[in-house]
Amino acid sequence: MRYPRGMPLGIFVLIAAITVLSIFAIERGESQREAAQLSARATTVASALERRANSSSAYLRAGAALLSTMEDIPASEFRRFVSELRLDADYRGADGIGWAQVVRPSQEEAFNALVSSQGSGNAQLHPRPSGNSPFAVPVTFLQPDTERNRRALGFDMYSEPIRRAAMQEAERTARPTATDRIVLVQEGEDDAAGFLIYMPVFEASAGGRSLKGFIFSPFNAQDFLQSALELEGAGSYGITLYDGDRREGEMLAQVNSDEGPSVRSVSQVVTIANNPWQLVITSREEAGLSGLSVATLIFGLLVGALLMLLVRMLTQQAQEDEASLAWFEEQASIRNSLTRELNHRVKNTLANVLSIIALTRRRADDINEFADGLDGRIRALSATHDLLTQSDWGSTPVRAVVDAELLPYAHGGDHDVQLEGPDVELAPNDALSLGLAIHELATNAAKYGSLSQPGGSVSVKWKTVTESLVRVEWLERGGPPVKQQRNRGFGTDLIERIVAHELKHPVELDFDPAGVRCVLLIPVRRATDFVLRAGRAEAAEA
């Protein structure tokens, strides 16, 4: 009963929370399952890549063992060795197998002659060694003998830093070693990413052994990845291979690219010929909830809605009964408050009327003047009373009070009326006093001041001085000069005595020759009992 609407809503929120937790658990399980599948796929693809690389390394090891036993390596023997490897059947993904012998500075001419004698055309050692390197390692043979592979013949791989680093590491470890990301010479103007795997070939010497050259395999990275995926297909996953960090400039190859905020990814390090690379497997997350989550959501919302409706129906009748009792109690309280407030308002209004009659009678010369003056002032009280009645004798805006008193002059085409100030609410007694003061000032301006001739203007500006005080300024300009020698009128007495007494603040009234200026300080009081009564009545009606 204390929370007739909160209780059904609370039950619904509770059921909804349980439903959301259930959906969260379901979706989390689905996410974990997909992550496990993604990790498994990454492991499988990494294994396929390593198998391809190990197969290539095995061929290179066998070639290195064979070439180390040969004093000279003629092109015919190298071609026979490569043909026996059955490249087309067992060695996919590579551009072939090559031999690069060590060429020292004194052996450059002999190398060029060797290449020419083997039918390699105009292939020459390039670029020419600068003298900073102890030797060159140019491409001597590269099988299969295709137009693409002939482009690489004679190229000094030791002159390029990435290739040189891999060869030095292979020489140090005597193991097949892959380079970082490069562009193969045989690619020509194409910038497709690739890499090479080097295996050092040593020969016996007086000091133990010396480097004879390198047997190597060049790879187009995209072809290498595709050949590995022949062992383990990509399926619906995206696969990207990076040389080191996961950056755009380090990407070697990519299949089924998936990018964006809704993509799940897993990374795994894969070692290709003694060189660690990064394999990234991605899958696009399906938008929305899974079928089980949707069914759980619908069921939970239905249960929550039914329980909320049932509790609401049980409490609604009790709520209506309690509201009826409260309404009767409220009406009794309102009736007592109305009686007390009405007595207070009537006494104040009668006191104001008596004061107006007394002052008007002392200033009137005949009965007509007395009746006219009394009529206007009573109408000013009536206009403000209308505003208070509309607000149920609660607070009334300053602008509404000023508008009501200046309404006859606001739309005249021969003078200007300006109102400016923030939204400030006044208590009923203070609104009556302000309305009476504005009426007297407007009447005086219409008879003798700026509203009595074309071109005159009146501005009423107000602003809050403190939280409990507002300053209202009346200013006339453009009217006849204000007489400095004049008799004290009723309006001056009413404003400086009655209004100032009611507002409990002195009134500043200045008869400047340029126009009358009046400053009122009006208290901003707390809401009256009638406002509280109105609020309780509205709550009871709701």
TrEMBL record:
Membrane-crossing segments per the record: 289-311
Q: Which UniProt keywords apply?
A: ATP-binding, Kinase, Membrane, Nucleotide-binding, Phosphoprotein, Transferase, Transmembrane, Transmembrane helix
GO MF assignments: ATP binding; protein histidine kinase activity
Q: Report the locations given in the UniProt record.
A: Membrane
Query: Where is each CHASE domain found?
Result: 69-280
Return the EC number: 2.7.13.3
- What chemistry does it catalyse, as a reaction equation? ATP + protein L-histidine = ADP + protein N-phospho-L-histidine
Q: Which domain of life is it from?
A: Bacteria
The annotated region (Disordered) lies at 116-135
Q: Entry's InterPro entries?
A: CHASE_dom (IPR006189), CHASE_sf (IPR042240), HATPase_C_sf (IPR036890), Sig_transdc_His_kinase_HWE (IPR011102)
User: What's in the GO CC field?
Assistant: membrane
Q: Can you cite a GO biological process for this protein?
A: signal transduction
Keyword NADP in the entry? The reply is: no
Q: Which PANTHER family match?
A: ETHYLENE RESPONSE SENSOR PROTEIN, TWO-COMPONENT SYSTEM SENSOR PROTEIN
Which protein are we looking at?
histidine kinase
Provenance organism: Aurantiacibacter luteus
